[in-house]
Amino acid sequence: MTAAAVLGLFLSALAVSLPTFAWVALGLALNRFGLLPEALNNRLSLLAFNFGFPLMLFAGAARVDYTDIGRAHYLLAGAAGAVLSLLLAWQYARWRGVPRRRQGLFAQAAYRSNLAIMGLALAVSAYGEGATALAALPVAVLTLLYNVLAVWVLGATLDTGAGFRAMAMGILRNPLVLGIAAGVLLSLSPLPAPAWLDPVNRHLSAFFLPMMLVCIGGSLTLRHVFRAEPLAWEACAWRLVLAPAVGTALAIALGVRGEALGVLFLLLATPVAASSHVMVVAARGDGQLAAAMVVLSTLLSVFTITLGLFLLSLLGLVGTLR
């Protein structure tokens, strides 16, 4: 392969990550200059989380052919990668001598990616609105799995006593899960998908994805970067490098290639989900450390995602980026 071709692949990978993180940077700047106060940011985030993203995922899930679900190896790889990453990170934290009350926090940060917001935004940036059909099922399954694993690992290390009933009700009330479930039911029903579904989904993506990315940027506090301890940096290495490598390697071993592999990588390679910080605080864990992990991984992920997507493109594994 010529140097020009390699450069072209790198620029294609950069064209996927830069627009996404440019919206995050805009939110950070707006917050810094007082143009995106916390109250407004919270309202916009709730609007996107409760209405925009569920509708987008509903439209994507409604276009999936579930008769072929048994061969969705990329979904199996994503789920197995999450569980394996959790167990490896937890064992690493114990080996490193991390205090027990911080082990679960570290392990959760290692596997729990921001797949429903940043992952979906990156997938759409890479492959267009059609990527929501591929991303819908992994988002649904992994969202459920992430929450179950988080309750388990935080309960085991923080002694929260969280019950299965409370966890199940929280998952069943998740707007993202409800939107995907409705789309699955429509796809499995004899009713045809409405003709307006695709154009509506394109408009929703064009509006809500940038808005939510701006909100993520507006919620970042840079002081966490300067006060971050070594454990936060190690968690970022697990979240941005090791965990995506585990899931992607499993998918490749199962024969996943092309757009499915690219979408899975982008879902798994995103920074620590902000919801992990919420769960840690609710469980009375170390909220400062959890926040540092979210901020650091968000800032660093633009580099790791670009490089990872470039390497996969260079190997011819993820198809043509748009």
Task: Tell me what you see in this structure.
By secondary structure, the chain is an all-alpha fold. The protein has one domain (3-314): Na+/H+ antiporter like fold, CATH 1.20.1530.20. It contains 14 helices and no strands. The chain has helices at residues 3-32, 38-62, 73-96, 100-111, 115-127, 131-158, 164-172, 175-188, 197-219, 223-226, 230-253, 258-268, 274-282, 287-314. Helix 1 packs across helix 9, helix 4 (100-111) packs across helix 11 (230-253) and helix 11 (230-253) packs antiparallel against helix 12.
Helix/strand layout:
Elements (H helix, E strand, L loop, with lengths): L2 H30 L5 H25 L10 H24 L3 H12 L3 H13 L3 H28 L5 H9 L2 H14 L8 H23 L3 H4 L3 H24 L4 H11 L5 H9 L4 H28 L8
Helix pairs in contact: 1-5, 1-9, 1-14, 2-6, 2-8, 2-9, 3-4, 3-6, 3-11, 4-6, 4-11, 5-6, 5-9, 5-12, 6-8, 6-12, 11-12, 11-14, 13-14
Outline of this structure?
The chain has 322 residues and is an all-alpha fold. The protein is built from 14 helices and no strands.
What is the distance, rounded to the nearest whole angstrom, between the alpha carbons of the first and last residues?
20 Å
How would you spell out the order of helices and strands?
A: HHHHHHHHHHHHHH
Total domains? 1
What percent of residues are in strands? under 5%
**Computed Rg:** 19 Å
The CATH class turns out to be: Mainly Alpha
Distinct helical segment count: 14
Largest sheet: none
Q: By helix and strand content, what is the structural category?
A: mainly alpha
Percent in helix:
over 70%
What is the overall shape?
globular
**Averaging pLDDT over every residue, what do you get?**
87
**How many beta-strand elements?**
0
Level-2 CATH architecture: Up-down Bundle
Low-confidence stretches: none
CATH topology: Na+/H+ antiporter like fold
